[in-house]
What does this fold into?
Amino acid sequence: MKASLKDVEAHKDKAKIHVDELNKLSLKAKETFKEIPKEELEKIEAKEVTTLTAQEHYKLGLSAISDGKFNTALNELENAIRLSDKDSSELSDIFFAKGFVLGELKEYDQAIEANQKALEINPKHDKAYNNMGRAYDRKGEYDQAIEAYQKAVEINPKKDGAYNNMGIAYGNKKEYDKEIEAYQKAVEINPKKDEAYNNMGIAYYKKGEYDQAIDAYEKAIEINPKRDEAYYNMGIAYRKKGEYDQAIEAYQKAIEINPKDDEAYTNLFELQLTKNQPFDQPLEQKYKELFQNKKESFVHYEMLKILQDMVQNQEVNLDGWVQKYHGVSLGSWSFDELPQWINGLEDEVLKVKLHEALKVFEGHG
It folds into this structure.
């Protein structure tokens, strides 16, 4: 999942934050699924539905979760619950899996209720507390989320994922020191937890401590050189420091790792524009190949391209841009830096034309 760095933050300054286990089944459930041979699943699926046991419905539910078929999973898990012995220890895991599925279906109140049922059966189910915390977080009930994560780590003090998620909840409350402390606890438990270092960098960034943010991103990359969002976030931090060459390099690296990150391209192109540099041509061509049919992204690129063409004294078609992107919002794109760049140019006639174009872009609905 992305998190804004400020209350109302620019498109180019949105950082990528990692929620631990957000889109994964619990470790126990994954291990349970891995132990099920393919042949066994096929045998279960070949049976008459009315003859299936609770355990078989549970296994089918886990298989559906693995495939991302959450409505199917929910149906199987509810059947498993209906058929289960109410004293079964496994019933807690079934309710936990149901809570996970309901969270993915954005039924957060029901997700919380399912995890509570898991905890009634097994009060030591730390994963259910962690799962419940995510549901509260998604509802915007951050205090309840933090309380649930704290319960998880009380039961399992080595649960680094709960500390990572706790940090995110503190960040949502703008309690950045506590956020950083939670991430530090996560990496103390698991020094290889690169996502916690990435998130820690975002917290430092939000405090305006850009050097510490960059240090944290570098640690994330040292652990996982393929973590493109850490490079992306590093580019934002370098940009804030005014170290533009380093910012450009960071964005380029993020794109090299993940060529499908459209925001990294547009961040790069805007930075190159405002530093009076040409767009990186190979990356520009790659961007057009990937995103020319994605208007929500291409609207930003073509806006920047018009400004670049104006600087190069090329003919532009502002009315054509307005018509092409009628009904397509610029989203949270910030115009803070473009006016500063224009005002720094020497050609007074060009400055007037660029400001007029900027008014068109700023007024675009």
The chain has 20 helices and no strands. Residues 126 and 152 are 4 Å apart (CA to CA).
